[in-house]
């Protein structure tokens, strides 16, 4: 572990049971179906760095985000925060302040019945603070996110969407976390407000040195906010590397397809990817992307390719398997 | 290529327990066959109300204050409910954001397509034969690139994914052959790759079948990818309307400019994103002057003298006194 | 916020009527109840009828079964007692019982329902099957059986009614818990290090009560009704203490010729039930609008 490493994910697997199992199923010993949301994922994030988990629904990015903060426990593998293992929320109270999350939907993030102060102060409940101390910390936090501290008395349900998201960020930073997972922080906000929230997140990171894990499906948000990008598909990382590299010169066929599908202003109809989004219950045996990949050949159907390290990033694709060994010129 | 749809001075308001609020203000535009008009607006801009108004699906607490919606030469607003019913299946087909709103959860997908075909046959006064219709239904499913169309036809909507359901909706449009499709945020809930499929399908059927389309979205990039013309809606007003390419490459109205600039186009190391103020359109706006003035970076005295009128500027219409002081 | 609620309720005729009825009923019961209580403490029961037109216990055979008149607004009963005074005297008991039962039911109901919704799985199964068990019995029969077993006292009637009432609140609070559970602020609370108990207390109870308060208000009247039925059947307060249900029962013998004996107490019960229903309805509209 390098000195600057903040977060490390090692071989993490998370499965969920599918469907409900009544008494009859149990008696008949019917086999349970499992859905593998995160399938052997490993990476690390440096202190003060932002890693984006870029993927569509079903890619496992949200589940991975929850595992990182401890809302769920991995079935295999482990997650280390500055060297110590991350325990799940119910197991360790002391760790709580260090891992925080900003959720996608601002309306669901805050209890509408509580005042803004009560919402923002919640992470401080593990610390033993007096009411005055709490009030001071809340005001400071609100100021940091660009809100007038007098807002603390208002009921959180009365605020606008953009204000709610700022309050959610204020809550996330009040406990001086090391890692903040941002789950689609701008998706549910009006487009003209997104810029403000993104700028705020950058400012906060520069000021306080937070490590961000950004979950998003939007490459332009990833491009703005993140230093490195991990492209996820069906629970696996298909490509990971510096943002500029991955988003400007994508190597994995899925990354290329994803970027080509994203509509841009001034662009015409995006080029669609063939095939259906994959089933998480019965994933392909070989490479997860093989059924939709235009370059697929035989070996792709046998086993999912491992992540190979190339200059400027890692890719999980047999197209690059040889390049890893010989590092021919012409590619990177 | 005549004008299929002409909307003139359409104003709609809603009655609520808090009073009455105007949601669409003197909206005017026209649409020809084979043309896609992208209507771009944020929440509260009135875009969904516009869709519902044209489709004559406004809720009972909505009031059309004025204007006309002339479709195929007939003013839809002058028709009674019964006459509108007879008109259905003839002209206008609506696609919602949530396909579960339009698809019957209790009917198999194939049967719903057959129903759509039946409606079309009745309107065109052609004979309806069940086996032919069933075969045609499968063909439509294949046309929208659904894998295993025969199998899918036997399934129920909840057994299919969101993307598949939206494509079923497009298949129904193909089956009914409307002249106008109104799509209200049809791809917002879909994945990017699925969205790409659905968007290219929309564009295909518009081009091939000569249908007209009003595509409503909050996402300027999505509108850009499929529209021939774009109308930018703010607080119930059309602020700018013109050919998609020129509106996007050379936006005139300050709000359009802010929408375009809001999409991050660089990395954080290259500097901050430009920001426009947060206030709600209703804050600080009495309705007597330009709706965007409270948030506008280019605001000055002339902006609050009255509500700006739409001005012809090059290839489009803009509602902004910076281009000429004319008021409603 | 309270002012806004009152203004809302006052603005609608139906809920205004309900509000008036409920306020009159509980306001009067509070005053009269305090007087009766003070009377018992000080050893002078007469305090209980200081505000009443007549002594509710005083019999006068020469004035038996008089029809309603300006002097006896609801007439007199077979023992010559003024019915109106007896009705007023009996009010605090019903008022107190309705409040105790509803609060008790809310307490037990949330205790069972909120964890069921929050934890799900095992806890949910156990709690809900328990709830189903109690819901399976018709309310009245269950109350009868409990009281018959425990004894014919007001206290046992209260216990019986709470036992009958909590299951519906359990179901309702579980439904509310299920609505709140997927919301992200629950996850945020977990991330803040709150324990499950703290989370339920901070985030779930308020939401649950918000919905339940309108049902509870309607139930106030319903409890009065059911308790009156119990009294009618002889399981409530024992004579000579006046009680609305008992009075209806006693008056049946004299029905229909001396109709006022049964009708007036019954009418009063009806008014209270309808009043609380109207108020509860108004509350529900108020809270629905708030969301």
Describe the protein in words.
- The complex is a heterotrimer of chains A (332), B (328) and C (291).
- Chain A is α/β, with parallel strands linked by helices and 332 residues long.
- Chain A has a single domain (5-265, 279-326), classed as P-loop containing nucleotide triphosphate hydrolases (Rossmann fold, 3-Layer(aba) Sandwich), CATH 3.40.50.300.
- Helices cover 31% and strands 23% of the residues of chain A.
- In chain A, strands 6-7-8-3-9-10-12-11 form an eight-stranded mixed sheet, sandwiched between helices. Chain A has a four-stranded antiparallel sheet with strand order 2-1-4-5.
- In chain A, α5 (131-144) packs across α6.
- The longest helix of chain A is centred in the middle third of the chain and has 18 residues, at 191-208.
- The relative contact order of chain A is 0.13.
- With 328 residues, chain B is α/β, with parallel strands linked by helices.
- Chain B is 33% helix and 24% strand.
- In chain B, β11 (311-313) and β12 (316-318) form a beta hairpin.
- Chain B is globular.
- Chain C has one domain (14-55, 72-290): Orthogonal Bundle (MetI-like fold), CATH 1.10.3720.
Keywords:
heterotrimer, A: 332 residues, alpha/beta, Rossmann fold, 8-stranded mixed sheet, 4-stranded antiparallel sheet, 12 helices, 12 strands, globular, disordered C terminus, B: 328 residues, 11 helices, 33% helix
Topology:
The complex is a heterotrimer of chains A (332), B (328) and C (291).
Chain A: E1 5-18, H1 23-27, E2 33-46, E3 50-54, H2 61-69, E4 76-81, E5 84-85, E6 99-102, H3 106-109, H4 116-121, H5 131-144, H6 161-173, E7 179-183, H7 191-208, E8 211-216, H8 219-225, E9 228-233, E10 236-242, H9 243-248, H10 253-261, H11 298-302, E11 308-310, E12 313-315, H12 321-326
Chain B: E1 3-16, E2 19-32, E3 36-40, H1 47-54, E4 62-71, E5 74-75, H2 81-87, E6 92-95, H3 99-102, H4 109-124, H5 130-143, H6 149-153, H7 162-176, E7 180-184, H8 192-209, E8 212-217, H9 220-226, E9 229-234, E10 237-243, H10 244-249, H11 254-262, E11 311-313, E12 316-318
Helix pairs in contact in B: 4-5, 4-7, 5-7, 7-8
Chain C: H1 2-11, H2 13-42, H3 83-119, H4 121-136, H5 139-150, H6 154-180, H7 184-191, H8 196-232, H9 244-252, H10 260-290
Helix pairs in contact in C: 2-3, 2-10, 3-4, 3-6, 3-8, 4-6, 5-6, 6-8, 8-9, 8-10, 9-10
């Amino acid at each position: 572990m390098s000195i600057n490493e903040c977060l490390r994910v090692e071989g993490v697997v998370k499965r969920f049971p599918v469907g409900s199992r009544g008494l009859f199923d149990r008696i008949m010993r019917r086999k349970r179906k499992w859905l593998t949301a995160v399938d052997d994922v490993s990476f690390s994030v440096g202190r003060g760095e932002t890693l984006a988990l870029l993927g569509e629904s079903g890619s496992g990015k949200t589940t991975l985000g929850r595992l990182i903060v401890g809302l769920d426990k991995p079935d295999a593998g482990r997650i280390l925060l500055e060297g110590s293992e991350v325990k799940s929320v119910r197991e360790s109270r002391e760790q709580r302040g260090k891992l925080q999350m900003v959720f996608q939907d601002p309306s669901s993030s805050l209890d509408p019945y509580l005042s803004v102060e009560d919402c923002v102060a919640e992470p401080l409940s593990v610390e033993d603070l007096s009411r005055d101390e709490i009030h001071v910390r809340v005001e400071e936090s609100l100021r940091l996110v660009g809100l007038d501290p007098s807002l603390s008395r208002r009921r959180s349900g009365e605020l606008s969407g953009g204000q709610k998201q700022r309050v959610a960020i204020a809550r996330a930073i009040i406990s001086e976390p090391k890692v903040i997972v941002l789950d689609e922080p701008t998706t549910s906000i009006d487009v003209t407000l997104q810029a403000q929230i993104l700028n705020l997140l950058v400012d906060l990171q520069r000021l306080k040195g937070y490590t961000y894990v950004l979950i998003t499906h939007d490459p332009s948000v990833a491009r703005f906010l993140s230093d490195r990008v991990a492209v996820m598909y069906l629970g696996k990382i298909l490509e990971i590397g510096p943002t500029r590299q991955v988003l400007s010169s994508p190597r994995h066929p899925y990354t290329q397809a994803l970027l080509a599908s994203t509509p841009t202003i001034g662009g015409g109809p995006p080029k669609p990817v063939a095939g259906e989004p994959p089933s998480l219950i019965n994933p392909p045996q070989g490479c997860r992307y093989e059924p939709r990949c235009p370059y697929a050949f035989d070996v792709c159907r046998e086993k999912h390719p491992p992540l190979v390290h190339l200059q400027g990033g890692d890719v999980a694709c047999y197209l690059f398997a040889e390049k890893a060994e010989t590092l021919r010129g012409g590619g990177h | 290529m005549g004008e299929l749809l002409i909307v003139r001075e359409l104003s709609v308001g809603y009655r609520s327990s808090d009073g009455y609020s105007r949601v669409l203000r003197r909206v005017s535009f026209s649409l020809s066959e084979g043309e896609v008009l992208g209507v771009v607006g944020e929440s509260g801009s009135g875009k969904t109300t516009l869709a519902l108004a044209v489709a004559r699906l406004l809720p009972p607490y909505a009031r059309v204050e004025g204007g006309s919606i002339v479709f195929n030469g007939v003013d839809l607003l002058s028709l009674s409910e019964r006459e509108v019913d007879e008109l259905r299946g003839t002209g206008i087909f609506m696609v919602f954001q949530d396909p579960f709103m339009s698809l019957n959860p209790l009917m198999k997908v194939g049967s719903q397509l057959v129903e759509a075909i039946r409606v079309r046959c009745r309107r065109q006064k052609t004979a309806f034969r069940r086996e032919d219709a069933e075969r045609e239904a499968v063909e439509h499913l294949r046309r929208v690139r659904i894998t295993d169309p025969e199998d899918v036809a036997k399934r129920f909507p909840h057994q299919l994914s969101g993307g598949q359901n939206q494509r079923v909706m497009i298949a129904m449009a193909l089956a009914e052959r409307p002249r106008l499709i109104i799509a209200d945020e049809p791809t917002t809930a879909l994945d990017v790759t699925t969205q790409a499929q659905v968007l290219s399908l929309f564009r295909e059927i518009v081009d091939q079948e000569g249908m007209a389309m009003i595509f409503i979205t909050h996402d300027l990039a999505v509108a850009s990818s499929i529209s021939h013309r774009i109308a930018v809606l703010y607080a119930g007003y059309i602020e700018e309307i013109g050919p998609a390419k020129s509106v996007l490459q050379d936006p005139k109205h300050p709000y359009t400019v802010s929408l375009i600039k809001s999409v991050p186009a660089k990395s954080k190391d290259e500097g901050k994103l430009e920001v426009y103020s947060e206030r709600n359109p209703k804050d600080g706006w009495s309705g007597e002057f330009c709706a965007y003035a409270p948030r506008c970076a280019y605001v000055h005295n002339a902006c609050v003298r009255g509500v700006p009128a739409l001005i012809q500027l090059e290839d489009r219409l803009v509602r902004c006194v910076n281009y000429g002081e004319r008021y409603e | 916020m309270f002012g806004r609620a009152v203004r809302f309720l006052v603005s609608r005729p139906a809920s205004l009527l309900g509000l008036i009825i409920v306020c009159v009923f509980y306001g009067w019961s509070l005053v009269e109840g305090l007087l009766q209580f003070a009377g018992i403490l000080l050893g002078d029961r007469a305090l209980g009828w200081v505000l009443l037109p007549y002594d509710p216990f005083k019999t006068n055979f020469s004035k038996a079964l008089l029809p309603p008149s300006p002097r006896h607004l609801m007439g007199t009963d077979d023992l010559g007692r003024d019915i109106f005074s007896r009705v007023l005297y009996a009010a605090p008991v019903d008022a107190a019982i309705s409040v105790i039962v509803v609060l008790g039911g809310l307490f037990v109901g949330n205790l069972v329902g909120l964890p069921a919704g929050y934890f799900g799985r095992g806890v949910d199964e156990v709690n809900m099957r328990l709830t189903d068990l109690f819901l399976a019995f018709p309310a009245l029969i269950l109350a009868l059986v409990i009281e018959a077993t425990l004894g014919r006292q007001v206290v046992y009637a209260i216990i019986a009614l709470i036992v009958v009432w909590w299951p519906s609140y359990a179901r309702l609070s579980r439904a509310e818990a299920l609505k709140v559970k997927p919301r992200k602020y629950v996850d945020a609370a977990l991330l803040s290090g709150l324990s499950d108990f703290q989370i339920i207390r901070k985030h779930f109870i308020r939401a649950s009560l918000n919905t339940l308060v309108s049902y509870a208000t309607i139930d106030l009247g319903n409890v009065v009704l059911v308790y009156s039925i119990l009294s009618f059947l002889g399981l409530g307060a024992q004579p000579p203490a006046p009680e609305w249900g008992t009075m209806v029962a006693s008056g049946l013998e004299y029905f229909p010729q001396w109709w006022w004996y049964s009708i007036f107490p019954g009418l009063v019960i009806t008014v209270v039930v309808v009043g609380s229903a109207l108020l509860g309805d108004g509350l529900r509209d108020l809270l629905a609008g708030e969301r």
